[in-house]
């Protein structure tokens, strides 16, 4: 499709990730009520993002993989009035997610001048990620047929080293397969993920690499061993322009008071 046929206005995207909701509204991680923190992040989004064209939810939406937790997530994020796309993380159960919101589990979404590809990197019973053959085939097909569209590829697990030694073994195990494909298709402008509970933003070989804070507890950047920070929960906004340029930033729920209890059940 010729570029001139795409709308000139950018596509407005919001990413929410790693909510870790429980079936019980009172469920907490390290003493932090994950439903309460998500509510504060959602309120921050509503204050700051008057237009949302697409909501990307990149895994670990639930901590206990319960129907009630996914229903709660869907209810808390429904007010944006925008289409949403979900993918599973290592704490999720893809079949339960699909039972609650089957229409939100879609691998490829074309919007404006962009193609959004959502890849399932979760491995049953494991914390690390892996793109199975069917997911790589989905990616191959999506990129090969993208035409004039620019591509944003999303998964849960980090495909690059983010400088946290303890997280390296629980990243995407076959990231090389993903990165080879990204290199082969210059229309891929960015990779976007969750899992790491912190902000990450770099450009490598012309591709923007982006990770986003959790809507609940945060992990300390640059930590050798497991370490949390007391930064506030947050979200990422993206502006996807018709010429392939991408603007993005992270915002925090500034009115949310982080009080952690290290004697309570943790991550």
TrEMBL record:
Pfam families linked: Metallophos (PF00149)
**Gene3D superfamilies named in the record:** 3.60.21.10
Top EC category: hydrolase
Q: Where is the Calcineurin-like phosphoesterase domain?
A: 12-198
Assigned EC number: 3.1.4.53
A single GO molecular-function term is: 3',5'-cyclic-AMP phosphodiesterase activity
Q: Which UniProt keywords apply?
A: Hydrolase, Iron, Metal-binding
Q: Does the keyword Endoplasmic reticulum apply?
A: no
Q: Which family does it belong to?
A: Belongs to the cyclic nucleotide phosphodiesterase class-III family.
Q: What's the name of the protein? A: 3',5'-cyclic-AMP phosphodiesterase
**Gene name linked to the record:** cpdA
